[in-house]
Amino acid sequence: MKTAVYPGSFDPITYGHLDIIKRAASMFDKVIVAVMCNSAKTPLFTLDERVKMIKESVTGIDNVVVESFSGLLIDYCKKENIHIVIRGLRAITDFEYELQIAQTNKELSHDEVDTVFLTTNIKYSYLSSSVVKEVASYKGDISPCVSDFVATALYKKFEKQKDQGDV
């Protein structure tokens, strides 16, 4: 059985992420969406909130599992016996960054882990979680970017921050 992992912070999950997940699910027997606890980022949503949103987003895709992890992706892959990492590419700039990470992971795993790059659907090529959060923070329309329940969660999060004086 071929298992692949699609790691990311998914803060929040967008239609671009879902496009990659659905396509990967059609290529592999099992896809693990691995939500990272990334020390370099300060997420808007907690790890549990992100996992919950992704689980709701992938309902009906039977071969997709959602988990969380911290630490190095290579250590997670070794622990779970995974040899394939999925990464999405929107533009050339993504490729330069992702290629460096893929090569590092290959080296650190002693050639045990390969990365498969999937180019995003052109209609999502502009999309990033950062852009979605920015638009949502100003109460802009994010319906073309995320599902209704993710949009609701974003608007509520920003409203709560506003009420607490954090924004």
TrEMBL record:
EC number: 2.7.7.3
Site feature location: Transition state stabilizer: 17
UniProt keyword list: ATP-binding, Coenzyme A biosynthesis, Cytoplasm, Magnesium, Nucleotide-binding, Nucleotidyltransferase, Transferase
Example GO biological process: coenzyme A biosynthetic process
Cofactor (UniProt): Mg(2+)
Keyword Magnesium among record annotations: yes
Pfam families named in the record: CTP_transf_like
Subcellular compartments: Cytoplasm
Pathway note: Cofactor biosynthesis; coenzyme A biosynthesis; CoA from (R)-pantothenate: step 4/5
Domain Cytidyltransferase-like, residue spans: 5-134
Binding, ATP: 9-10, 17, 88-90, 98, 124-130
GO molecular function: ATP binding; pantetheine-phosphate adenylyltransferase activity
Group of enzyme by EC: transferase
Top-level taxon in the UniProt lineage: Bacteria
Catalytic activity: (R)-4'-phosphopantetheine + ATP + H(+) = 3'-dephospho-CoA + diphosphate
CDD domains referenced in this protein's UniProt entry, alphabetically: PPAT
GO CC annotation: cytoplasm
Amino-acid positions noted as binding substrate in the UniProt annotation, renumbered to this chain: 9, 41, 73, 87
InterPro entries, per database record: Cyt_trans-like, PPAT, Rossmann-like_a/b/a_fold
Function comment: Reversibly transfers an adenylyl group from ATP to 4'-phosphopantetheine, yielding dephospho-CoA (dPCoA) and pyrophosphate.
PANTHER family: PHOSPHOPANTETHEINE ADENYLYLTRANSFERASE
Family: Belongs to the bacterial CoaD family.
HAMAP family: PPAT_bact (MF_00151)
Subunit composition and interactions: Homohexamer.
This protein's name: Phosphopantetheine adenylyltransferase
Organism of derivation: Butyrivibrio hungatei
The organism's taxonomic lineage, starting at the top: Bacteria, Bacillati, Bacillota, Clostridia, Lachnospirales
